[in-house]
Amino acid sequence: MSFQNISDLNLQGKRVFIRADLNIPVDKDGNITDDTRIKAALPTIFHALQQEAFVMVTSHLGRPNEGSLNKKFSLEVVQQRMSELTNKPVYLVKNWVNDHFELRKDEIFLLENCRCNVGEKNNDKSLVKKMANLCDVYVNDAFGTAHRAEATTYGLAIQAKESCAGFLMAAELNGLKKIYENPKSPFVAIVGGSKISTKLELLVSLLKKVDFLIVGGGIANTFLKAKGFEIGKSIVENDLIEVAVNLINVSSNGGGKICIPSDVVVTENPVNGSCSRQASINNIYKNEMIVDIGLKTSIMFEDLITEAKTIIWNGPVGLFEIDDFSHGTKCLAKAVASSSGYSAIGGGDTVSAASKFGVLNNIDYISTGGGAFLEYLQGIDLPAVTSLSNKREKS
């Protein structure tokens, strides 16, 4: 797909509308716990300011109800951090679709949570038209929402006078293209998390492309049960046991090899990490649950990662948030970071894990998107990217 980049356009004196992904995690006290996404949006914002453009930035935060704004979904917390990071005035505009506001150069106007606007999610034409009247140039820099056909991610790209990808969006697509179109072998994918159901199509797609598919977390539990192992009280999707069996058969008949744990860490109570033990997958009791991969499995997976030339990682392989159950995810994170192969990670939990274990700077490509990252790897067209491409073809 071909689309314009922000560096292709002359922005001087133009009103630039940047759709960023500032959906950052906030704790119960309203404090930002990770500002990675704000920092990732800054290169595009700074470029527009340096070009002497009038700069507007919007994003979603959480999942508010359209037509109302609960304080916990306000971008006010983003406004404060963005002002600190840019050392620029950042003004939060509340009812920006209908109220008049005057833009000024060398200042940033942060438009309140776009998902509070009625019609955002279903790409309402009248809403898109109002937004298009606010700007001369539309910039999509929100790869994390590229799989959504919403007003600010899809409709505005088509309706605006000029549309382009921001630096982050372009970097995301270029990084993924390197993996998807011509990966070097051995190609290893690590897929963790709690449910097969949320990543089923990804698993099917990856089995056709990878040499080794490492599974962990709740996903691995479903595969273990499909193979007939006792998994006790572990998270499992019983209605997908047959699906797991079919995937195992695909693997056995020429697909990528599915690698499941041979030993695990189990506990009766995940809150109390001290009451845990290493166990073979043949020796799990009915009152126990799996909370991490075991030492032998960690070594086995590390060896595969070390030999890999291409690595994709999405999802932790245990309850890494609890230190006692973080060893497996930590070992894999360090193996991915130290590998000489091209490494790519995506998804909020995965990035959080890599950050916790101090390896982010050694990963070749870090995706800010979760769902978009997964859908791209499945070969699904992303609406936001399609709209930018279609806009260029028509211009």
Unreliably modeled segments: none
- Quickly count the domains: 2
Shape designation: elongated
Please identify the oligomeric state.
single chain
Q: And the CATH topology of the largest domain?
A: Rossmann fold
Task: Describe the largest sheet.
Answer: 6 strands, parallel
Structural class: alpha/beta
Descriptive report:
The protein has 395 residues and is of the alpha/beta class. 36% of the residues lie in helices and 17% in strands. The chain has helices at 36-50, 76-86, 125-132, 151-159, 167-181, 200-207, 217-226, 241-252, 295-307, 327-338, 348-356, 371-377, 383-394, and strands at residues 15-20, 54-58, 90-93, 108-111, 137-141, 162-165, 187-191, 212-215, 257-259, 263-267, 276-280, 289-293, 310-314, 342-346, 365-367. Strands 3-4-2-1-5-6 form a six-stranded parallel beta sheet, sandwiched between helices. It has a six-stranded parallel beta sheet with strand order 9-8-7-13-14-15, sandwiched between helices. β5 (137-141), α4 and β6 form a beta-alpha-beta unit.
